[in-house]
Design a protein that fits this description.
80 residues; alpha+beta; 5-stranded mixed β-sheet; 2 helices; globular
């Protein structure tokens, strides 16, 4: 038997913020933005296993994320 798991695709942008895109079985969930300290606290609080955190080089095509969100904000789905 296998369990469905949520992966967290993580991008550090040039401004130092950390963008997280959640996905379950290829379906995108929330996109949220953190400071480095807030991200570390979020991982600890939610007990996210390290194997479910996938570090990426950049959002979509290796470019900066154009979601327009600031630290502490989130949106449902994948940014445009």
């Amino acid at each position: 038997m296998w369990a469905i798991q949520m992966n967290h695709y993580v991008t550090k942008t040039a401004d130092g913020l950390i963008h997280v895109q959640n996905a379950v079985m290829g379906h995108f969930g929330q996109h949220h933005v953190h400071t480095k300290e807030d991200f570390e606290a979020w991982v600890k609080k939610n007990k996210i296993p390290q194997e479910n955190i996938i570090m990426l080089d950049g959002c979509k095509d290796g470019k900066e994320c154009k979601c327009g969100l600031k630290a502490g904000q989130r949106m449902d789905g994948c940014p445009p």
